[in-house]
Automatic annotation (TrEMBL):
This is 6-phospho-beta-galactosidase. It comes from Enterococcus canintestini. GO terms for molecular function: 6-phospho-beta-galactosidase activity; beta-glucosidase activity. InterPro entries: 6P-beta-galactosidase, GH, GH_1_N_CS, Glyco_hydro_1, Glyco_hydro_1_AS. Belongs to the glycosyl hydrolase 1 family. It comes from the Bacteria. The active site is at E374 (nucleophile). Its EC number is 3.2.1.85. One of its GO terms (cellular component) is cytosol. Keywords: Glycosidase, Hydrolase. It catalyses: a 6-phospho-beta-D-galactoside + H2O = D-galactose 6-phosphate + an alcohol. GO terms for biological process: lactose catabolic process via tagatose-6-phosphate. Pathway: Carbohydrate metabolism; lactose degradation; D-galactose 6-phosphate and beta-D-glucose from lactose 6-phosphate: step 1/1.
């Protein structure tokens, strides 16, 4: 039995590029992924879940199945097709209609401004490595706050800046497809922290109403076995992937223990990090004003040191056992056969979520509150006799909600949980066979089938509200 606070938010998460489809409709401008996916030729972002047209169906289902809030992102190039300059009125009208439909159904929209989909020309000019992207992002955010502020009261600046930085420059599964360039990834993280901070500061300075936060992917790192050098590797990974950007958003500067590890990595890679004095002013100001942290959590890692030629294989096909992660001077991930993992080699470890939240509370006492903004199971769901019996998803979600329940009783302010994902959708690096949704989507007919997990979710959400 799960016992969560009455006012706990039961949300469903989506992202514009993964659900909307219609990537060239109504004046939408190109994004970095359009070109990258075409070149790869593995799968197309169209039709995705055709949310551009089907959103009333998904919102009606959300209401019926106890979803109180929805994470959506605004596709920057529906608003400004080139990233800056000319405005696309049809894009503006679309998001007004979408938010109105949310509110009509009693569903609170939590809106992300950047969810991996940088406008193409900004991407081609260096993406987050170019400070001009930061300026363009701030202008776009300001427009959105002014335009949609009467409908939207919960704003998220950037989704998973770590996934962007590492996907782009270390794993190489995001455009521009570069591998093992850690200094670039570190600079891209810092620049996103500055972009985030500037947007938070602007939101507060202009007195826009509502709350603003950021979404980080946070995974706990543990020593593969109890050896001192494995502890050091776990610490290096934690600092690089988690602490660096948590320091930025909550301390407003990078603490000495953080910079010790980051400088070591930069030295080994003959790289440097540029931090302008102005950047630190923005970070310090924003750290005092951020309203919430969105925590995306799927898995944790067990690591040992690695010194040698880096090699990462991203399992983007669902062939279990194919993932490899060895990053020179950072660490190697070791899989313990006793700990379950998904077909995409994601280690299922709810304790990692609890430990992460406790670490945040202890290291950043000013953290305010946390929403788990993504968590869920990617699986190869099948329709059998018109039904999708996804018991494994129910089990996955239940053990993670249990970890949240435990966190709340340890005094951690966790206010809600957004299942990834609301409906089945397009996955950036896995295409269409990795399904996460409460609602099954037949991508040919665009018909929805609520899965067994949707029924379970409805009962849980409704009984929680009754107390
Ligand atoms: C994180 C990202 O925000 C989302 O876009 C992605 O599809 C899910 N995780 C699952 O990988």
């Amino acid at each position: 039995m799960l016992s969560l606070p009455k006012e706990f938010v039961f949300g469903g998460a989506t992202a514009a590029y993964q659900v909307e489809g219609a990537t060239t409709e109504d004046g939408k401008g190109p994004v970095c992924w359009d070109v990258f996916l075409k070149e790869q030729g593995r799968f197309s972002p169209d039709p995705a879940s055709d949310f551009y047209h089907e959103y009333p169906t998904d919102l009606a289902l959300s209401k019926e199945y106890g979803v109180d809030a929805i994470r959506v992102s605004i596709a920057w190039t529906r608003i400004f097709p080139n990233g800056t300059g000319e405005l696309n009125k049809k894009g503006v009208a679309y998001y007004h209609a979408l938010f109105a439909e949310c509110l009509k159904n009693g569903i609170t929209p939590y809106v992300t401004l950047h969810h991996f989909d940088t406008p193409l020309n900004l991407h081609q000019n260096g993406d987050w490595l170019n400070p001009k992207t930061i300026d363009a992002f701030v202008a776009y955010a300001d427009f959105c706050f002014a335009e949609f502020g009467s409908q939207v009261k919960k704003w998220i600046t950037i989704n998973e800046p770590a996934s962007i930085a590492f996907g782009q420059y270390v794993v190489g599964n995001f455009p521009p497809n570069i591998q093992y360039d850690l200094p670039k990834a570190i600079q891209a993280m810092h620049n996103q922290m500055v972009a985030h901070a500037k947007v938070v500061n602007l939101f507060k300075e202009k007195d826009y109403t509502g709350e603003i936060g950021i979404v980080h992917i946070l995974e706990s790192y543990y020593p593969a076995e109890d050896a001192v050098e494995n502890l050091a590797a776990a610490n290096t990974c934690n600092v690089l992937y988690n602490q660096f950007m948590l320091d930025a958003i909550y301390k407003g500067y990078y603490d000495n223990d953080t910079m010790f590890v980051i400088n070591e990595i930069l030295k080994q890679n003959d790289g440097k990090l540029t931090i302008l004095p102005m950047d630190l002013t923005e970070l310090a100001k924003a750290a005092k004003q951020i309203d919430f942290l969105g925590l995306n959590y799927y898995q944790s890692h067990f690591v040992q040191p690695f010194h040698g030629e880096s090699y990462i294989h991203h399992n983007g096909t669902g062939e279990k056992g194919t993932a490899v992660f060895r990053l020179n001077g950072v660490g190697e991930r070791i899989y313990n056969p006793a700990i379950p993992k998904t077909d995409w080699d994601w280690v299922i470890y709810p304790k990692g979520l609890y430990d992460m939240m406790l670490y945040i509370k202890n290291r950043y006492p000013n953290y305010q509150k946390i929403y788990v903004t993504e968590n869920g199971l990617g699986d190869k769901d099948q329709v059998v006799n018109g039904e999708v019996l996804d018991q494994s998803r129910i089990d996955y979600v239940a053990i993670h909600l249990k970890a949240i329940e435990q966190a709340i009783s340890s005094g951690i302010e966790v206010k809600g949980y957004f299942i990834w994902s609301l409906q089945d959708m397009f996955s950036w690096t896995n295409g269409y066979n990795k399904r996460y949704g409460l609602f099954y989507v037949d991508f040919d007919s665009q018909k929805r089938i609520p899965k067994k997990s949707a029924q379970w979710w409805k009962e849980l959400s409704e009984s929680t509200k009754k107390g």
